[in-house]
């Protein structure tokens, strides 16, 4: 198991290093969501800051809880989506973030405290509305899946 996690971490670090093409990202254009949320056995819940100040987005604190019988691994990378006309749309980041190549493991029946810094990827104000943080999690049996947590910017 540890060997697989080390291999996953190495592969992820190589992918992250090769992802940047040096071109700037347009300021927050929206594209359709690609997220398929996994069963309620693994959840991401915002613990505070559920309402963000739109003019000054900060850090979202959340708990990733694994109530399943298998382990899930995940990294620091996250996506941001906005609810637009009853459809989740991906928010393009203002910067091309570089995430640390650190993999964490949520063992069965465990909870992990996580932080997601919006100010690192969004320069300026968010439009008022409903958003969600999207985090990819992986298991040996299910492969890549997603967990989400919603918040409101006012």
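-> sequence recovered:
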């Amino acid at each position: 198991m540890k060997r697989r996690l080390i291999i996953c971490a190495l592969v992820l670090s190589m992918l992250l290093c090769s992802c940047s093409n040096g071109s700037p990202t347009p300021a927050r254009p929206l594209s359709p969501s690609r997220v398929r949320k996994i069963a309620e056995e693994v959840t991401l819940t915002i613990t505070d800051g559920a309402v963000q100040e739109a003019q000054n987005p900060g850090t979202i604190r959340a708990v990733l809880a694994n109530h399943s019988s298998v382990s899930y691994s995940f990294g620091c990378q996250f996506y941001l989506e906005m609810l637009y006309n009853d459809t989740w749309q991906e928010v393009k980041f203002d910067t091309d973030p570089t995430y640390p190549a650190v993999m964490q493991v949520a063992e069965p029946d465990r909870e992990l405290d996580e932080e997601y810094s919006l100010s690192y990827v969004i320069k300026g104000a968010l439009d008022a509305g409903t958003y969600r943080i999207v985090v990819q999690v992986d298991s040996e049996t299910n492969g890549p899946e997603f967990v989400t947590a919603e918040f409101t910017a006012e």
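Residues 2-19 form the longest helix (18 residues).
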